[in-house]
Input
Amino acid sequence: MVSGNDAKLRLDQFLAKRLPEYSRSRLQQLIRTGFVRLNEQTTRPRQIVRSGDKINLIEPPLEKIETLPEPIPLDVLFEDDDLIVINKPARLTVHPGAGQHEHTLVNALLSHCTRLSGIGGKERPGIVHRLDKETSGCLVVAKNDVAHRELSRQFAARTVEKIYLALVAGKLRKAAGIIDEKIGRHPVRRQRMQVTSLRGRTAMTEYRTIRSSDQATLVECRLRSGRTHQIRVHLHHLGHPVLGDKIYAPRFAKNFPRQMLHAWKLGFRHPRNGEWNFFEAPLPADFVEGIRTAGL
Output
């Protein structure tokens, strides 16, 4: 039941506040598909709730996984009965989607693991968070629903440690700082995100220079939020786009095989015992070569 303190929130905002183990997008999907009822009626994510409203959420039955296993080699950093941490290579898409139904990380995981969490549905079993296709590095996958919900809760609460390495154009004027700028989808180029105060969502990236020249800088980025393309958009906004990024900085892409972004370190509490786990993904060969090409 909605209290007076929560009145006038959007329904998806109210649920995200009460159920941090669910992502906002997951809650919006459940609302749109009728698994959330407001006063016994189906409704929309943007519906404003009022004091005294009754809200019921029913988790839908798990979808049968139809994606086929493929024996794609995996670089496993850690694995137990609850989760698996992968050093994802660049150019490997995380899960099937429009235009690609095979040769993804999920296909590889279905071949490697005897079971995966079903919360993500048939196309995203076990997937708690994602990396861009061209981004390499640490990624955790849940093997059961209990682990999935607890890891999702930690990501939503921003208690997960996410540290990236980015190779960017130019020399930063400040060796370290915080980029605190809202991010939203580009109104025309829908595959792009942009810094915007209009309908943007809060995003914060902490950065520091590791080494630099006049032409390029190797930057460590700590994510304090998890927005789509966050590091790429924030660094582009700072005037130092990620080298090799064909979407946000195509003129800096010709000498690099892919965007020079690596999910270097990942830390979280184990969903079963609560112990802190911290993983580091070694730099792949193309990233090391990118650093050399940039003169660092």
